[in-house]
Every structure is written in C-alpha cells, then in structure tokens.
What we know:
Blueprint: H1 4-10, E1 14-18, H2 22-34, E2 38-42, H3 45-55, E3 59-63, H4 68-82, E4 89-93, H5 98-106, E5 111-114, H6 119-156, H7 163-177, H8 182-194, H9 204-208, H10 215-222, H11 224-232, H12 242-246, H13 268-283, H14 294-306, H15 312-324, H16 327-337, H17 341-346
Parallel strand pairs: 1-2, 1-3, 3-4, 4-5
Helix pairs in contact: 3-4, 7-8, 7-13, 8-13, 14-15
The structure holds fe (ii) ion.
Amino acid sequence: MIPDTIISARETAAVLIVDDSRSNTDLFEEVFSSDGFRIFRAAGPEDAIEAFKAHHPDIAVIDITTSETCGFRLCRMLKGMASQRFFPVILLGAGKDRRGKIEGLESGADDFISRPIDPREFSARVRSLLRLKHLHDELEHSENIILTLAATLEVRDPHTQGHSTRVGELCRDFGDYLGLSLQEQELLRKAGLLHDIGKIGLSKDLFLKPPPLSDEEIETIKQHTVIGEQICKPLHSLREVLPAIRHHHERWDGKGFPDGLKGEEIPLLARILSIVDSFDAMYSERLYREGRTAFEVLEVMREEKHLGQWDPLLLEHFIGMMKLAGHELLEQLAAADSRTDEQKETSLL
Ligand SMILES: [Fe+2]
C-alpha cells in the first residue's frame, strides 16, 4: 500500500475536472488545491480532450448531471486515448441515479459518486484511484525495463536481431489461431519477447563461438532458461509468463531441458513458444547456415515431430496456420499435400 504522503509529496498529480457549472468547479478546486494537486478545468468534452492532450492529467472527474450521454461518451474517449495506460475516471451524478451509475461503470468509469458530495469522501476516493494509478505506472515501468533488456540482448548479437520480437508476434498470432483468450495471447507475446532473456547472464563470446561446443559450454548455455526465469520472477505481472520462459526447451519426449518434462507436463504456453521459437530460428538466416524457406523449415519440423521433439497436435495446428499465411508457402504446402500417400510416407511423414 502506498501511503498518502507519497501521493501528496508528488505534488504533480493533475486532476481534470469536466463540469459546466463554475460553482461546482470552484468547490472541486478548493478540495484538490488543499491536497496539493494541480487542477485543469474543462466546460465540455472538446475542452476536456484538449486539456487531456495538453496537460496529461492523472485522473478525470466528469460531471454527468447536465448530459449523461455526453459524459459517458467522453469517459470512453478518454479511456481510449489513454490506450494501454491506466487512466482513472470518476463520474459525478444525481443522488439516486442507479441506471446512470450502472451505465457509467459500463462506459469504463472507475467510480461513480452521487451528489451531494462529501468533500472528505470525494478526496479519499480520488486519492485511492491515484494510488492505484501509481502502482500501474510503476508496474509498467518495471516491465518496460525488462523488455528493454530483452531488446538489448538482441542488439548484442546482431545475428539474432529481431528474433524475440518476431517470436512474440508469431506466438500471439498462433494463440489467436488456437482460439486462446486475448489475455493468453498477450502472455504469449511477452513470453516470446522474453524467452531468451537469460542469455544476458551468460558470456557474449559463448554465443558467437563457432561449433562444436564442449559439453560444459552446452550445459552453460542451457542455463539461460533458468536464469531468464530468475530475472523475471520478481515482477508480479510476469508470473504467468515464467513457466513458458523456463520450459521453452523441453521436448515432447522428455529429452529436453531444464527439467526433462514430458508431453502435457510441459505447460501449454511453453509448447507453443518452443514451436514458434524453432520455426523462426531456422527460418531466419543465422551465423553458421543459410536461412531456409518456410516450407523447408516445416518439413524439418515434421521430421522432428516423429523424433519426439514437438507436441504433434500443436505442430499440425501451427502448419495449418502457416498455410493460411498464404503466398508462396501456401502453394508449396498445397503441392505437398496433393502428393500421394506413398510419397508423403517417404517425405513429410
Ligand atoms: Fe532459448
């Protein structure tokens, strides 16, 4: 819990008040100014949007007494303009306006306060939402630091540049194709971005060294899964991504690392991530070999499926999604699928 003193000490918390009644805004100013907040007034939606863009307030208080519809619309617009950031909005309405209260909360408002206003309660609710916003901002900041670390890692090795970003995006698309929720898709995107962050704890020379590597060097490289988990562990918001980071090198047959998990013991997000990671690694041009076409990579992965590397059903879904990706790959796969069963036995299957 962040104490009130922190909110007060910031002295920069800015409150946007949207109210067409001057006497009301005077009252709000009195309440907030004594708390050390900066106040921006707006008489209507247009002024409010202008003030939102110009002053980046931390919270908005919208009086909906004159026009509920305008107030709800403005609430949605401000929330939309804040995008991924948490931007608290409080609506002020008539005393017994139950319907307005429900509609207001459905429009995205974080609180609804009925008139007549108790200044102390009002101030307490604003502070409560500002504490929540502060926590969101801190969380976003911490996540951004780790994501920046992941990007730094790629710059360190130009041969893998863009790999994590591509894996993150393709993981999210694959999650969408599999019908996973938006929340799971976002977890997959983050897991893709962060899956190799543990390499930051290992020597750069180790990754640039041409093969063959010694057994000891291979064991050291394998540690990047566990180190990655340790780096992200302190961040509560990434807790659901941790299993994917730790287990993205497990194999369906149990011969992977770090824990030798087998089949469905391997978390689903890790099984998805491992397929996408390998696809991008083989598809992209790397230091020691020429890049392959998508078709060639999927052929290799189908062979690996028979050797026990991949979740067989997930791999077929992945190939199904790639077929939908179209163009050249689609034609190649369609041609492959039109081969006779006997031919398939000796090639893809
Ligand atoms: Fe990895």
